[in-house]
């Protein structure tokens, strides 16, 4: 199958791109394919907990910051589904996570030109060489199909971070947050599981809270390296660093300045809890102590230094980094709120290796820098924090980033079609 543009992953990044293509470049949109490995378009399926809120304003949807008149806006989704009055009456800028998931699915179903094919998993991608020039990309799917394209957009997200200590533990005993809901649904609800929750951020806190309801007889323990749980560090001043307009400033900064900004912004998004979750979690612990059940336990300032399986349980070694004291915790189930690997995703690294790139860099417009002749182009979405700022992996910049990529593709296509200059006679 040959298309002009192939996008890998039907998540928010590539859905924003699809909308931008339909509105800005319909000729390309009609020759665009998005492949998605899951059976349907979904978002954070493993963590669509009933009361989980988004941390981003509904105005930072797929399109509003680029085209506030678009029919693909979150507000139009609410109107189309008959829920606009109720949302307005709630008086909140942040929708529930399950609402955002519904909006993304509605958007995918509302596209009229871009083709989305689910149950299509990409096994590997290789450049297409014509002599010594890259002229396209060849994506090999797990079902044996092959898709060739001139433009490639990888927006499948980062790889889940599994700490090395748990890499060899049987999969049925370790659940990353991305798989939580479907995996926990297969477990018996009447057993007194010992559950170890790893992490100190929003995902870990949500796992710790949710498992108390989903496995009513369980006894969860939360382990973290930090001295305790903290709220996100946020203010209206900090939030300006999540503006699409700040990307230019960040990209133009010196590498050491970028690293300092990312370090100082870490607690605005990582290793922190939303205030509502913090309040709820502390009340859970307070009531547990008040009742005398001692069902819940939080262990701060400990490193997980080893883990092994013994029979039907996992033995986890915890080291107190204050004293060096070591203890072993025996558990039936490990829940990982450990987020995602900071490395480039495996798929991106494999593409870079196939081209022969020494390092992975992108332009301001998210195009992979290919230091050899190429009439093809590859774009990376959601993995460029180091050059484009902390908002790059979040929902905040979906619409302006899609605009940048589409504009760059249009410029690139125009350059390819431009006639070669005629040499002057003489």
What does this structure look like?
The chain is an alpha/beta fold. The chain has 2 domains: 2-159 and 341-417, 3-Layer(bba) Sandwich (FAD/NAD(P)-binding domain), CATH 3.50.50.60; 164-232 and 269-336, FAD/NAD(P)-binding domain, CATH 3.50.50.60. The chain has helices at 12-24, 26-29, 74-80, 84-90, 97-110, 180-184, 202-214, 236-239, 246-252, 255-265, 275-291, 346-355, 385-388, 398-417; strands at residues 2-8, 32-35, 115-117, 122-130, 133-141, 146-154, 174-176, 194-198, 219-223, 297-299, 302-310, 313-320, 326-331, 333-336, 377-380. Strands 1, 2, 3, 4, 5, 6 and 15 form a 7-stranded mixed beta sheet that branches. Strands 7-14-8-9-10 form a 5-stranded parallel beta sheet. Strands 11-12-13 form a 3-stranded antiparallel beta sheet, with no helix packed on it. A hairpin with a 5-residue loop joins β12 (313-320) and β13. α1 (12-24) packs across α14 and α7 (202-214) packs across α11 (275-291). It is globular. The chain starts with a strand and ends in a 9-residue tail after the last helix. Pathway: Siderophore biosynthesis. GO terms for molecular function: L-lysine 6-monooxygenase (NADPH) activity. It catalyses: L-lysine + NADPH + O2 = N(6)-hydroxy-L-lysine + NADP(+) + H2O.
């Amino acid at each position: 199958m040959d298309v002009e543009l192939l996008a890998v992953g039907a998540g928010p990044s590539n859905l924003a791109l699809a909308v931008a293509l339909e509105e800005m470049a319909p000729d390309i949109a009609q020759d665009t394919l998005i492949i998605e490995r899951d059976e349907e378009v979904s978002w954070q399926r493993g963590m669509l907990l009933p009361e989980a809120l988004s941390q981003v304003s509904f105005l930072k949807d797929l399109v509003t910051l680029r085209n506030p008149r678009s029919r693909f806006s979150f507000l139009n989704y609410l109107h189309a589904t008959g829920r606009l009055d109720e949302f307005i009456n709630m008086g909140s800028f942040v929708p529930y996570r399950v609402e955002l998931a519904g909006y993304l699915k509605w958007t995918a179903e509302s596209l009229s030109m871009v083709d989305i094919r689910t149950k299509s998993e990409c096994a590997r991608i290789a450049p297409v060489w014509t002599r010594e020039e890259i002229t396209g990309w060849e994506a090999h799917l797990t079902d044996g199909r092959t898709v060739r394209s001139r433009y490639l957009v990888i927006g499948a997200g980062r790889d889940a971070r599994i700490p090395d200590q748990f890499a060899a533990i049987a999969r049925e005993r370790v659940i990353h947050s991305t798989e939580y809901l479907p995996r926990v649904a297969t477990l018996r609800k009447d057993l007194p599981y010992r559950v170890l929750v790893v992490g100190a951020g929003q995902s870990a806190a949500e796992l710790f809270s949710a498992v108390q309801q989903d496995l009513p007889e369980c006894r969860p323990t939360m382990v973290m390296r930090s001295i305790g749980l903290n709220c996100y560090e946020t203010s209206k001043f900090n939030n300006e660093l999540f503006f699409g307009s700040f990307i230019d400033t960040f990209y133009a900064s010196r590498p050491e300045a970028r690293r300092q900004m990312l370090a100082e912004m870490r607690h605005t998004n990582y290793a922190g809890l939303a205030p509502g979750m913090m309040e709820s979690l502390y009340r859970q612990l307070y009531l547990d102590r008040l009742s005398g059940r001692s069902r819940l336990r939080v262990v701060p300032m400990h490193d997980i230094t080893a883990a092994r399986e013994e029979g039907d349980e996992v033995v986890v070694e915890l080291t107190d980094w204050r004293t060096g004291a070591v203890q072993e915790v025996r558990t039936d189930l490990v829940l990982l709120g450990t987020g995602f690997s900071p490395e480039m995703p495996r798929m991106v690294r494999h593409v870079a290796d196939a081209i022969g790139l020494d390092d992975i860099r992108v332009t301001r417009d998210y195009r992979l820098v290919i230091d050899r002749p190429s009439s093809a182009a590859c774009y990376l979405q959601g993995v460029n924090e180091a050059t484009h700022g902390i908002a790059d992996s979040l929902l905040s910049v979906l619409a302006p980033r899609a605009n940048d990529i589409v504009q760059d593709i249009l410029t690139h296509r125009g350059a390819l079609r431009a006639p070669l200059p005629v040499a002057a006679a003489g």
